[in-house]
């Protein structure tokens, strides 16, 4: 089984690309969704969270805004919360991987916001980083209900820089372009991995002649005007090309 690690900073498009991977037949473990599940009314994380952060839970489950205000911007508090939640997430992740192996899944993916920060990149065969220009990221995140510039900045400050994530990535997916282009790029990547395996696809990236332009202007190996069907066959003819920064 090929195991992929999908990551990217806030608002870069992890969930959107995860949905594209699923549509391409790749089961995806969503760490953020698991966190939310653990924090729902009746969720396993609520009791230890209430003990560590009194007044942040109630009959409706977790007061996300209150806990967020307590931990984003306070590294010690954030680490205390992570020490409660992350082991539970890892357990669910193990169960997902065991099921994927049992089902003889060819490719599976872990969507983990803190993939590099938490060391889970060591578990996977290849890492995918979703990335868009900073102004696009900011616009997307500030459009969310309940988000403020201060909260955005404090979350961003807790995460590894986008530039560093891109540097570490095996595959960089530029989500600053249209959904259609990104979808085609994901299909190419999955198709390359299915046909040729991880080593070949990684070596395609390394040998790519795609110019390494800034994220905002570079083309990431998929011609935007091409239809998904024809780009797929073109990709299999020449081997898909993806950028690595
Ligand atoms: C503090 C909480 C309750 C705030 O909830 P809220 O609904 O306001 O934010 P949400 O969960 O949607 O996350 C917003 C953004 O922050 C990122 N984020 C969440 N936790 C962290 C963290 N510990 N470090 C860095 N980024 C984080 C998310 O990936 C997302 O990009 C929640 O984020 C939480 O429980 N975080 C701890 C668990 C965690 O580490 N999750 C991320 C990796 S599994
Ligand atoms: N080419 C693209 N690829 C991915 N997302 C895109 C693209 N173009 C626009 N978007 C939009 O950007 C937003 C990305 O949000 P998404 O929830 O996927 O990010 P995320 O990285 O999972 O965020 P978070 O870190 O907060 O969980 C979505 O509203 C999506 O529709």
TrEMBL record:
Pathways per UniProt: Cofactor biosynthesis; coenzyme A biosynthesis; CoA from (R)-pantothenate: step 5/5
Alphabetical UniProt keywords: ATP-binding, Coenzyme A biosynthesis, Cytoplasm, Kinase, Nucleotide-binding, Transferase
Low complexity compositional bias, start-end: 206-237
UniProt keyword Transferase present: yes
Annotated EC: 2.7.1.24
Region (Disordered): 206-245
GO cellular component, one term: cytoplasm
Sites where the protein binds ATP: 11-16
CDD domains reported in the protein's UniProt record: DPCK
Record field: catalytic activity: 3'-dephospho-CoA + ATP = ADP + CoA + H(+)
Gene3D superfamilies with a match to the protein in the record: P-loop containing nucleotide triphosphate hydrolases
GO biological process, one term: coenzyme A biosynthetic process
Protease recorded as keyword: no
Gene Ontology MF terms in the entry: ATP binding; dephospho-CoA kinase activity
Compartments (UniProt record): Cytoplasm
A Pfam family the protein falls into: CoaE
Function: Catalyzes the phosphorylation of the 3'-hydroxyl group of dephosphocoenzyme A to form coenzyme A.
NCBIfam families: dephospho-CoA kinase
Protein family according to the UniProt entry: Belongs to the CoaE family.
HAMAP family per UniProt: Dephospho_CoA_kinase
PANTHER family per record: BIFUNCTIONAL COENZYME A SYNTHASE-RELATED, DEPHOSPHO-COA KINASE-RELATED
Protein name (database record): Dephospho-CoA kinase
Organism classification: Bacteria, Pseudomonadati, Pseudomonadota, Alphaproteobacteria, Sphingomonadales
């Amino acid at each position: 089984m090929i195991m992929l690690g999908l990551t990217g900073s806030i608002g870069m498009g992890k969930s959107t690309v995860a949905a594209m991977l699923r549509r391409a037949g790749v089961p995806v473990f969503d760490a953020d969704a698991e966190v939310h599940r653990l924090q729902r009314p009746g969720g396993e994380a609520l009791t230890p969270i209430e003990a560590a952060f009194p007044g942040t839970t109630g009959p409706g489950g977790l007061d996300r805004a209150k806990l967020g205000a307590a931990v984003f911007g306070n590294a010690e508090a954030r680490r205390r919360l992570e020490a409660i939640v992350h082991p539970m997430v890892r357990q669910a992740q193990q169960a997902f991987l065991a099921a994927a192996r049992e089902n003889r899944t060819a490719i599976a993916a872990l969507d983990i916001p803190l993939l590099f920060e938490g060391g889970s990149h060591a578990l996977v065969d290849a890492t995918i980083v979703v990335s868009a220009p900073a102004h696009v990221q900011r616009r997307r995140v500030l459009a969310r209900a309940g988000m403020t510039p201060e909260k955005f900045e404090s979350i961003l400050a807790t995460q590894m820089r986008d530039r560093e994530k891109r540097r570490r990535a095996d595959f960089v997916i530029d989500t600053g372009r249209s959904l259609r282009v990104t979808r085609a790029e994901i299909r190419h990547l999955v198709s390359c991995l299915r046909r040729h395996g991880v080593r070949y696809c990684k070596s395609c990236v390394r040998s790519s002649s795609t110019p390494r332009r800034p994220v905002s202007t570079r083309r990431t190996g998929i011609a935007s005007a091409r239809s998904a069907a024809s780009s797929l066959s073109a990709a299999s003819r020449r081997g898909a090309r993806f950028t690595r920064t």
